Amino acid sequence: MNRSIENLPAAEAHCDGPCGIYDPASARISAEAVRSMTKKMLDLQPADPSDAEATARYLNTMSRYVAIKEEQAELTKRELLILWTDYFKPPHLEQFPDLHDTFWQAAKLCSACKVEVSAQHCDELMEAIEKIHGIFWATKNREVEWVLAG
After folding, report:
1. For the CA atoms of the chain, what is the radius of gyration?
2. Neighbours of 103 (CB within 10 A)
3. What's the CA gap between 15 and 23, in Å, rounded?
4. Strand runs (DSSP E) across 29-74, as ranges?
């Protein structure tokens, strides 16, 4: 059967499947995990170097915190980039002229949270995602409360 592309219906999707589901909550949740792991890293007290078992426990715990922080910062960036590149369209940019800069800064903060152990950058990332939350829901003419899981 020969069917031309012109005869096929048009489809729109944010990803490879046409689910049409977007929500900045997924970025917020993973960013909260980044902030939580960063705080835990800053609060973790080093072990007495003469106690091999305590040192091993410390290193194991710190390694786990780092791994989770890194993974969640990358996930946050991915979620933001999907929202930025797939959901937002030119009319949204007209409505929110700082949209691109807001997302660019948020993505850069994800990288900073990976590279550093900075509570300040984690807080700045959360503030950026809160702003994105407000912009996103404004595009849908809805007011959705900003609620933190942690």
Report:
1. 20
2. 20
3. 14
4. none
> What is the Cα–Cα distance from 95 to 108, expressed in whole angstroms?
23
- Residue whose pair of structure tokens reads 């595009």 in the numeric block: 139
Give me the pLDDT at residue 14, please: 47
Distance CA 34, CA 108 (A): 14
Encode pLDDT of 60-99 as tens digits.
Answer: 999 999 999 999 999 999 999 999 999 999 999 999 999 9
Class of domain 23-139: mainly alpha
Q: What is the pTM of this model?
A: 0.85
- CA atoms 10, 15, 17, 21: torsion sign: negative
Q: Which stretches in the chain have pLDDT values below 50? A: 11-14
Phi, psi (rounded to 5 degrees) for 15 = -145, -155
